[in-house]
Design a protein that fits this description.
By secondary structure, the protein is α/β, with parallel strands linked by helices. It contains 14 helices and 16 strands. The chain is globular, with a radius of gyration of 21 Å. The protein binds zinc ion.
């Protein structure tokens, strides 16, 4: 392989920031992955040098929660190719998506369908399997999923066909607790409380009802129940898109006796309050759980600034025509984020709130890499890690949908001024984004099997 160097940068490594260079392999064919060779000042000859002039170099982002294509009945506006282009332009080199059996669909059919979807990916990707109410059959198909590189799971406490009660969850955790490589990402909202509140409020075009009928306590009750199950079964569990102060307080309490209990949140929960649900554009800011209040936002920031969260996007955009003309119960829930996640956190966390770059790296890649078993192949700038690198500069810019590398027709981040931008992205040593154009080809992203990492 050829050798390249990013020079004169501020390189954020697990040991702290190093002023100097990152030297890495550049693959010459599609089946190769470039690795990092040297960090710090280097004098060995290289084939190409990029002078990063004081910019930061961080590990390529890991967005541990995206939905590219297929989920629910209304098609998501982003498929794997366009979504992966947005990821790369945003400094993200790895995403974790879902294989979700639909209704009676078998695991093997869902797997085939989703692997086909991902065949055009330009970003590296990993899959987790959604276990639905048909989990007993699905668990019998685990060897199949594992052979296909899937060792992680998504569970829901709510949603038709997917509602798993405490007894179901306990059963699944017990059955699957024998392999510590497995992880569980759980959507935590109380189905009974929400059904009761929605029946009482009726349907309407007031999108604040989304927040009123899916209250903070509903998430917190499920989060506490999940903590107990982790304590009993010793599984490794992440609360998906945590939104509330109460869930954050759970992280301050005692750790479970066994297993691991962590939480993920998303940029939109750190940026917007439920006020965004008011008015005619309220429908555009709909996702579940819903946006919360200012005190919740402050608690989320406190945990973020302490480096205690995984920040993923739950990227799941819909088109304007799908969002408009709906009610709070019929609107397709989900928003975009994969393009802006890293530049936004650099701007709002590092530039505006004094977050250290070590913390920035933990939130955008390292914590996810550790939890999902990818570290230090990914999530670290160290010799022999994959050469997944994002170069971040201090240029100011304003988010505009017409500049987005995926062809969405709106973004919740429209007009947001960011004090930082992605200068370049390298995926496995290949230049995937040059600051203006995405260079990575469809299909150049690789599926990751954490049990078969090569470095
Ligand atoms: Zn999701």
């Amino acid at each position: 392989m050829r050798i390249a160097r990013i020079a004169n940068a501020r390189v954020v490594t697990p040991e702290g920031t190093v002023e100097g260079d990152v030297t890495f392999e550049v693959p010459e064919s599609r089946d190769q992955v470039g690795h990092i060779l040297e960090v710090g000042s280097a004098t060995s000859p290289v084939d190409q040098t990029f002078d990063a002039r004081g910019a930061w170099v961080v590990p390529g982002g890991i967005d541990a929660h995206v939905h590219f294509g297929g989920f629910g009945t209304i098609p998501i506006a982003d498929g794997f190719y366009r979504g992966s282009r947005a990821a790369l332009a945003g400094g993200t080199t790895t995403v974790i998506d879902f294989v979700e059996p639909d209704g009676e669909e078998s695991v093997s059919h869902a797997l085939g369908r989703r692997l086909k979807d991902a065949s055009v990916s330009a970003v590296d990707y990993m899959y987790r399997l959604v276990l639905t109410e048909r989990y007993e059959q699905q668990i019998n198909d685990l060897p199949l999923a594992e052979r296909a590189g899937i060792h992680d799971f998504k569970l829901f406490t709510i949603y038709e066909g997917e509602t798993l009660r405490e007894d179901d969850l306990g059963f699944i955790f017990e059955r699957l607790s024998d392999d510590p490589r497995r992880t569980f990402l759980v959507h935590a909202e109380d189905p009974d409380e929400i059904a009761r509140l929605q029946a009482g409020h009726g349907d309407s075009t007031d999108f604040l009802e989304l927040a009123r009928t899916r209250p903070a306590e509903s998430e917190e009750r499920m989060a506490r129940m999940l903590w107990r199950l982790v304590d009993e079964t010793g599984v490794r569990l992440c609360i998906a898109h945590a939104t509330t102060a109460g869930t954050m307080h759970l992280l301050d309490g005692p750790a479970p006796a066994r297993g691991e209990f962590v939480a993920e949140t998303c940029p939109h929960y750190l940026e917007f309050s439920e006020d965004a649900l008011k008015g005619a554009d309220g429908c555009l800011f709909t996702m579940t759980p819903p946006l919360r209040t200012a005190p919740d936002i402050e608690e989320l920031w406190e945990k973020a600034l302490a480096g205690r969260l995984i920040i993923s996007t739950d990227h799941c955009p819909y088109s304007l025509s799908d969002k408009r003309g709906t009610t709070y119960q019929s609107v397709p829930c989900g928003v975009d984020g994969v393009w802006t996640r890293m530049a936004w956190l650099y701007s709002e966390g590092v530039q505006r709130r004094g977050m250290g770059m070590g913390t920035f790296v933990r939130l955008t890649s390292e914590n996810a890499a550790r939890f999902y078993g990818l570290y230090p192949h990914k999530g670290a700038i160290s010799p022999s890690s994959d050469a997944d690198l994002a170069v971040i500069g201090d240029d100011q810019w304003q988010v505009r949908i017409e500049d987005a590398p995926d062809a969405l027709d709106y973004t919740i981040w429209e007009g947001k001024r960011l004090a930082g931008s992605i200068v370049r992205t390298y995926r496995g040593g290949s230049l995937a984004f040059d600051g203006e154009r995405v260079l990575a080809r469809p299909g150049s992203g690789r599926q990751i099997d954490k049990t078969r990492m090569d470095a």
